[in-house]
Amino acid sequence: MIRALMSSFVAACLVLVLVGPLAAKEREVWRHPDGFFENNKGNDWYEKSPNGKFQFKEIKRTAEFIELENIKSGNRVRLLNDRCIQVDKDGNETKEYYKGKWEE
């Protein structure tokens, strides 16, 4: 019985070790028609658009979105699977910025 439990535990740990890095790399670049958001390292992101290059800090990550805060202005955006929206500090949607998607 203990041997079966240990085998199951080891198998579960292997799955986490092998799948974890893949899941973390899934959402590193989000493209829109005029540019992109890209994860530099850790929680550091930047956006390149016709208006320039902007630095962001990742403040929240869920299965549905990644929320970023502009380092200079404090404006927040959420990168969803199909669009980028501006949100206020309470998480309420205020407007849509772009249609876009995650790079595969």
List its traits.
alpha+beta, nine-stranded antiparallel sheet, 104 residues
Descriptive notes:
- This protein is an alpha+beta fold.
- The protein has one domain.
- Helices cover 23% and strands 48% of the residues.
- It is built from one helix and nine strands.
- A nine-stranded antiparallel sheet has the order 8-7-6-5-4-3-2-1-9, with no helix packed on it.
- β7 and β8 form a beta hairpin.
- It is globular.
- About 16% of the residues have low confidence.
Q: Round the Cα radius of gyration to an integer and report it.
A: 18 Å
Q: What portion of residues is helical?
A: 10-25%
Give the rounded overall mean pLDDT: 83
Write the element-wise H/E pattern from the N-terminal end onward.
Answer: HEEEEEEEEE
- Tally of DSSP β-strands: 9
Which structural class best describes the helix and strand composition? alpha+beta
The amount of beta strand, in percent, is: over 45%
Count of separate structural domains:
1
Poorly predicted segments: 8-24
Largest sheet: 9 strands, antiparallel
Q: Give the N-terminus to C-terminus distance in angstroms.
A: 42 Å
Indicate the overall shape. Answer: globular
Give the spatial strand order of the biggest sheet. 8-7-6-5-4-3-2-1-9
